[in-house]
Automatic annotation (TrEMBL):
Keywords: Signal
Signal peptide annotation: 1-18
Pfam family, one: Lipase_GDSL
Protein's recorded name: Lipase
Amino acid sequence: MKTIRVLGLSLITAALLAACGGGDEPYEPGTTPTAGAPTTKGNFSAVVSFGDSLSDIGAYAPATSLSGDGQAPYFGGKFTTNGNGTAGTVWVENLAAKMGLLVTPGEVGFGAQSVKCPAAALNLGNTCTGYGQGGSRVTDPNGIGKSTGALTVPVSKQIENHLARFGSFKDTDLILVYIGSNDVFIQFGGFAAKAAQIQTAAATGQISQDEAQRQLFAAQTAAQNGMKQAATELAGYVRTQILAKGGKYVAVMTLSDTVDTPYGKSLPPSVQPVLTDLSRVFNLWLREGLSNQPVQIIDTFPILKDSYANPAKYGFVNNTVPACDGAKIQAITGGRVTDGSSLFCNGTAGVPFNGLRTGASVDSWAFADGVHPTTGGHRALSEAFHAQLKAFGWL
C-alpha cells in the first residue's frame, strides 16, 4: 500500500489566503497586533472564565458521585488528577487564588440534570463565574461527550449566560477566554475518517494516486476552513459580546500544539502535522479577528511547546505517559469509563477509588490522561499565565 502524503500548512494556507483576494503583495492575516488594552493594574473582584475542559472547575462532578446517584461526595469532577485540598485544582482556580479571589462553576450537572450557580446555596457569594465545560466548542452546542451526558455549553452560550445574570461585564472583572481544542478534535476526526477512505480507495485501485492527493488536499482544506470559521466566530464574540458589553481586562488564549501530548505522540508521524496545523490556522484567524482590539493575547503555543521540550525546567520527570491508569478507572467506574478520562481519576493515596498508575505523581508527571494536565501541569500553566498577566501590567 502506498502512503498518501499530507500537505503542509504553507500550501493549504496559501489556498485559504487566495480566497481573501489577490494582488502582488496580498494582505497577510494575523499580522496586525491588538491595541488599546489596559496597561495598568486592575482592581479585580472576579475571575470570569470561558472555555472547555482545560478551564472546567467541576461542571461534571455529579458524574463521579460515589453513591452513583449524582449526589456528593464525588471522587472526581475535573479533567486532572482530582483530590482533596489544593490537589486537583486547575489553572483558573490557581490563578484566582494567587489574586485572593474565589471562583466556582457557573453550572454543575450531567445528563438531564443541572444547577446554575450552586455556590449560591452554600452562601459562597456571587462567585459562579467559571463557565468552562469539558467537551465545549466555540459555537456548536454538540460538543464532545454531549451524547453521553456532558453539558458542552458552547462559549457563545457561556457568555450569554453571564450577561443574563449580570447584564454586562465590570471594570473589576478579569476575563479569560480559552477555547478551540474540541473544534480541533472534531475537525481532525473528520479529516482522519476521510483520509482512511481515500487511502483504501487508492490502495484498491478505485482512484489514482493523483486523485487521492487531490481528495486529501480537499479534506485538509475543509478541516482548516472549519478551524478558520471557529476562530472567526470566537473573535466576533469577544468583540461584540465581551468588549462591547463592558469588558475591560480581557485576555484571550491561543491554542497549543496537541501533538505535544501523549495522544498527539501516539498518532502516526505522517498525520501529526495535520493536527498541528489545525491549531495554527485557528490561532492565525483568531489574531486576525482581534486585530486592533483592546485585548491581550496569551500565546499558549510556544509556552506549552517549551514545557514539552524541556520538562525538567518545569519540574516534570515524565511528560509522555498519563498519570491516570485507564484499567483502574474502568474498574472503579464498573466498566462505564473505558478511555481513562481524568474526569474520573483521583490521586488520593490509600482510597479505593485512587486511579493513578503505579509510581505516578500528580506533581511531577505532566499529563493526567492523553491531553489533560495533572495537578502539577495545571500549576505550571497557571504560573505561566500569571507571569503573562504581570507582563501586561494587570497584576
